[in-house]
Amino acid sequence: MKKQNLRIAIVRLSALGDIINTAVVLQIIHNHYPDAKIDWFVEEAFAPILQNHPLIHEVIPIPLKRLKKTKSFTLLKEMIHTLKSRERYDHIIDAQGLLKSAIIAALLKGKVHGFDRSSAREGIASWFYESTSSIPYEINVIRRNVMVITEALKIPYTEELIEQKKPIFPLKIAPANDKKIALVIGASWASKCYPKEQFAILCDLLPYPCHLVWGSVSEYNDALWIQEHSQNAVVTAKMSLSELVDFLACCTLTIGNDTGPTHIAWAMNRPSITLFGPTNERMIYPTPINIGIKSLSQVDILHINRNDFSISQIDPHLIATKAKELL
Prior knowledge:
Blueprint: E1 7-11, H1 16-22, H2 25-32, E2 37-43, E3 58-62, H3 64-70, H4 73-84, E4 91-94, H5 99-106, E5 112-115, E6 131-133, H6 141-152, H7 160-163, E7 181-184, H8 196-205, E8 210-213, H9 217-228, E9 233-235, H10 241-249, E10 253-257, H11 260-267, E11 272-276, E12 290-294, H12 316-326
Parallel strand pairs: 1-2, 1-4, 2-3, 4-5, 5-6, 7-8, 7-10, 8-9, 10-11, 11-12
């Protein structure tokens, strides 16, 4: 008999795209354990995208970036006290496989499950786990996220668990009837960014207004440049993570670099095209309406070449053709 009211801790601190690509497990867990209470430990900057999620009992922000910046011993003590003082969990799952996430998980009360030494992103993390899963690092990231958690919870894994997902985040506004395309123009590395000059060309090839999504000053400046050099582009207002989810869920199509906001479209079951240069399609879960376009460069996922700027070789006409097929 399934235990009622399981207390489950998921440790997935960052980055935004990884959090989005892990959150599908919330539905999977609740379908198998309807009364489970799931707490999610996340880097505080990304906590807003999970706050008030109907399938999460509590979101616990972890201030690791603030600790690194301030080097505050008081803040460190407060964080450790907060973690150690929490109630015991039936299952603690480190779905990240880094030393920092493993330490966070180990500070909680309960047995910790994670990736084994050969499949964790940082093998040393496995020292902190009572049980492990062997899931090759090279396989699709969404499958990895789901498999490590379902194995920990003894939930039989099938592809249907992912393929039959409902929108992952609650939609707070009613979808509009107007047709629009979102372009996610930024990313964490310069080499993951499709050039602004080619984005401008792409905008003029597309049949609906293109809304340029940005998240930093440099991205905002690039968005202004694209808007000035295209007849079909408009810069969006600055948005919170919650507002961004609502906006992209209401777009007819999202086209963007391999970065968190682009993955939101997949999470919300909306059409998307993800552009890849130094990374590849391992970072998305392809569906008939969610596809990737990769440059011709070869990718060693274990040794990413951040100097691979081959994304610039992707022809905007090819992207436009694929977009029109999806539309």
